[in-house]
Design a protein that fits this description.
Blueprint: H1 2-6, E1 10-11, H2 12-16, H3 23-35, E2 39-44, E3 47-52, H4 54-67, H5 69-84
Helix pairs in contact: 4-5
Length: 85
C-alpha cells in the first residue's frame, strides 16, 4: 500500500484494486498506516485520497536503525551493490 501511494495520491478503491481483499479491509489497513503517521488523507470532492508522508517514513527509518543498526547497514550495502550490478 505504501508503494502505491508513494508516487501519487490514491483512493481506497484504487488501492483495493491491487489486492485480493475487501475495500473495507484496505480501509482498515490505511487507518493503521495513518495512525502510525506513514500516510496522510486529503479530501478531493467526495473522495479521500491517501498519500505517503515522507516525514513519517523518516521516523520509521530512525526507529528501525535504533533497533537493528548493523543489520540495516548490511541490508543497505546489499541493496546498493545490487543497484550497481
Amino acid at each position: 500500500m505504501l508503494i502505491l501511494v508513494r508516487d501519487q495520491p490514491r483512493s481506497v478503491g484504487e488501492i483495493a484494486s491491487h489486492f485480493e481483499i475487501t475495500q473495507q479491509a484496505v480501509s482498515q489497513h490505511l487507518r493503521v498506516l495513518k495512525d502510525a503517521g506513514l500516510v496522510a488523507v486529503r479530501a478531493q470532492g467526495q473522495r479521500r485520497l491517501y498519500v505517503i508522508r515522507p516525514e513519517g517514513l523518516e521516523g520509521l527509518e530512525a526507529f528501525l536503525r535504533e533497533l537493528w543498526p548493523a543489520s540495516l547497514d548490511r541490508l543497505r550495502q546489499a541493496v546498493e551493490s545490487d543497484d550497481e550490478g
